[in-house]
Amino acid sequence: MNQPANLRSWVSDANQHADFPLHNLPLGIFSQGGSPRRAGVAIGYSIVDLHAALAAGLFSGAAQTAVQATADGTLNGLFALGRGPRVALRNRLLELLGEGSGERDAVARCLLPMADCTLHVPAKIGDYTDFYVGIEHAKNVGKLFRPDNPLLPNYKYVPIGYHGRASTVRASGTEVRRPRGQTLPAGHSEPSFGPCARLDFELELGVWIGPGNAMGEAIAIDQADEHVAGFCLLNDWSARDVQAWEYQPLGPFLSKSFITTVSPWVVTAEALAPFRCAQAARPEGDPRPLPYLWDARDQAEGALDIELEVLLLTAQMRERHLPAERLALSNSQNMYWTVAQMVAHHSVNGCQLQPGDLFGTGTLSGAQPGQFGSLLEITQGGKEPINLASGEVRRFLEDGDEIILRARCRGMGQSSIGFGECRGVVVAAR
Q: What is the pLDDT of residue 4?
C-alpha cells in the first residue's frame, strides 16, 4: 500500500521530521508519569494516545477493533489480528492526521509530547530467535577464524539461527551492565571468571511476528508476509571473550543473553512497502534455495532498502560536548535471506510462531571498511584499534561508552521515514 509522497500533516513538526512523518505512523507502547501502559502512534515529536482517541469516538469498525486489542498495554493482540485491522487503523490515522482533517481539534486533545513519555518494549515476547542472514558479516567473521573457508557449507542453503533469551530484551535507553562470565585467556589451559573484557555491539533489524501458526503447521513462503507485523532496530550485545570459550559445540549462550536492546517503535510492513526491492545479496551462480524457501515474488520484491548507522558516544565525548562518532553505515540489502524466508524456515518443522515473537536478522555489515556492524569486524578481533576523533582508542567497548543505532529509508519520490534510535550505555560489572 504505497502512499503518495506529498502527504502532509496538520501536525506541522511531522512534515520535516526525519523519522516520523505522516508516511510512517509507527506503533508503540508508552506511559506517562504513573499512568498505565497504553498504545500510541508516533507523529513528529508527539504521540497519538490511541486509547484517548478511542474514548473520543474517533475509531470505528476494524480500526476500533485494532485499538481495542491493545487494552492490556501490549501490541500482542493487535499483532494477532493480522494485516486487515492494522491497515484499517493506519488508513484512519492518515485521515485524522492529514491536512484538511475535519477532526483536528478532537485529535489534538489526544496528542502528548513524546519527550514527556516513557517508551517500552512494545509486545510481550514469548520467544526470541536471532538469525545470521547478513552474508558480509558472516564472511568477515569467517575470515578471522577460517581465512581459506569463511562461509561454512550450509550457509547458502539454510537460514542459520539460534534461540535467544526473551526475558532480557529491553527498550532503548536501558543501561547495559557489563556481564561476568567464564573466559579462556590467551596462553592459558584453564578458564577464569570475571567481567567481560571484549564487549561488542551488533547492528541488526528486529522483526515482530504477527498472527503466527498452529503447532505442526508450516507457514508457506508465499504467505509469510502475512505473519510479519513490523520492524525495529536491534542491538545484539555480545561478550566476545565469553562467546569464544562457550560456543562450541552448541553455539551462543551466556555471551548473548545478558541484554538485547530494541528500538521501541514498530515500523509497520505497510510503511515500508515503498522501500521493498529485489533480493540482491544472492549473486548469479549461487545454489537455488530448496522449494519451501523459494518464491519468485519474494525474490523480486522481498528485500528492504534501509540505511543502517552505528554511532559511538564515549564518556569523554559527553564531558567535552563532542558529537557521537559514526562507526558504520550499512544497508539491509546485505541480507542473504529475506524475512519471508526466515519465517518459512522457522516454521517448516512445525515450530509454532506466536504474536509478539521477535526475530533478529543477525549483524548487517557491508563488504567494505566503514560498513562493518560490529567491533569484532572493525578492529579485526581487537588487532586493529580504532582511533577516535576525541583522541581515544577502542578495540572493544569500555564502561561509559554509548552505542546508538539509527535507520532511515529514502527513495526516489518517497518521503523518508526512520525507526527512531536504539541506544544503550555500558556500565561497570557488578
A: 64
